[in-house]
Write a structure and sequence with these properties.
Layout: H1 3-29, H2 39-42, H3 54-65, H4 69-77, H5 82-109, H6 116-123, H7 126-157, H8 162-181, H9 186-204, E1 214-215, E2 218-219, H10 220-237, H11 244-269, H12 289-296, H13 304-312, H14 323-348, H15 353-359, H16 368-383, H17 387-423, H18 432-451, H19 458-461, H20 465-486, H21 492-519, H22 522-553
Antiparallel strand pairs: 1-2
Helix pairs in contact: 1-5, 1-14, 3-11, 3-14, 3-17, 4-14, 5-13, 5-14, 5-20, 5-21, 6-7, 6-20, 7-10, 7-17, 7-18, 7-20, 7-22, 8-9, 8-11, 9-11, 10-17, 10-18, 11-14, 11-16, 11-17, 12-21, 13-20, 14-16, 16-17, 17-18, 20-21, 20-22, 21-22
Length: about 550
Amino acid sequence: MSAVALLLIGLGAFALGYLFYSRFIAGRIYRLDPEFRTPAHEQRDDIDYVPTNRFVLWGHHFTSVAGAAPIVGPAIAVIWGWGPAFVWVILGTIFIAGVHDLGAIWASVRNRAQSIGSLTGSLVGPRARTLFMIVIFLLLLMVNAVFAVVIARLFVGFPESVVPAWSAIIVALILGQLIRRRAIGLAWLSIFGVIALYGAIWLGQYVPIALPDTVAGLGANAQWIVILFTYAAIASLLPVWVLLQPRDYINGLQLFIGLGLVFVAVVIANPTVVAPAFNQNLPAGVPPLVPMLFVTIACGAISGFHGLVASGTTSKQLDREPDARFVGYFGAVGEGCLALAAIIACTAGFATLGEWEALYSTFAGGGLEAFVEGGATIMNAGYGLPIAVGTTLLAVMAVLFAATTMDTGIRLQRYIVQEWGNIHAIDWMTRKGPATALAVGCCLGLAFGAGGTDGTGGLIIWPLFGTTNQLLAALTLLVISLLVVKLGRPPWFTLIPMIGLILMTLTALLFQLVDFYQQENWFLLGLDLLILVAAVFVALETATALVRARKREAPA
């Protein structure tokens, strides 16, 4: 199979989805209104609520949702063959992820930028809201704790990525001030930012930075985790225009250029996909394709985390309601492109099938390593980019994706704490400083409390990420469907994907329950049950509200 064929089919499908399907959904189902006054204007405070250029906001949304997961998930899932992973990424992005992201922004904007959890309380009831917010908090805890580990390991494994990653913060701070003052046009600022970032990537090869082996009993990984959470806490308290928006925007441009470099290399080199379309020679211990494919590839096809970003930060910055189509749907397409790149790099970046099978000898044998090595090999074959430069470029891409997601994740976790404080009239929880301290404290508590001095405690609950994430996506689609029905519009374009998604995810949760029981992993078994019960109750209460709403809308 030619990698070029996979690339062209995938990109062509994404283009058609955005040009036609997203226009239909935006115009006929959500009915985006250019005259609607968005919360960014109505509740403007120039800290969290800031009307934002749609290209800048797209950069924030895309890089916030596109963490390491849309690389890692497909890079692992191709062990079943490239066929199932490719089909799920393409169809999931067009018919589920784009509709989900766009819908979450729209639903939040129409309800004073409430998060999807808080919106559940308004539409369904306080009990559903409480249970939904528990699931959301657990998901954010997983994302933040694990992405800190991912970034730390990349810094340790690729010390040449440290300078580019931290230089991006300096570039973003400068851009934020210039964009705010409108001193220079956005096009020139974009060019300056991209040149600065790629200059830093070049410099990083010659100035690798490695932390001491041990400081105060903490290894290099653990030291980076503490540094990362300290930075994320500070960044989450800053006005979004100071760092979050410009960093995400310039990272989005850099990351799309990085994807472009990979895609151009594929076209030039035209490598052969050495992995089978359907792998008939699976290693021992690989779980069944159905339902596990649909939770292994979460981000990249559909992700509940997107709904948290869409209704948590993106909706507070939307300048005009029609911008939600470009920001939300096209943001999902951007992540689909990243997943497509991961599939190609991890199946065509190897010389032989035997070489590929050697790496994929276990279920988790692929991952970031396969993406970085495979992508660098393709770029070397395409236009002679040295392997060392290619690995640095792709490692920095992975770091920046994960870091921007972590930045937004900590801010979202702070929002959840503040919303909880508002709901239950707990004054100190409503304040930014204490709410941020509690959010970061929970992440550090999980990282070091469960993981010891290496800070990897988040990995303990990571096996539940895929199922929790997909359950959250299904519940978000259900809440969006309820709002659509209340407005007298057809809900099938959100309900049908929701039904398929929730069936697969609940089946995967039950599969994991059996697995955890057989392993005698009582902690994950209990957490799995908690998430399962909470999700079922939210789904039942929302479905009941949906039925009631449809009866009220039915003609007499």
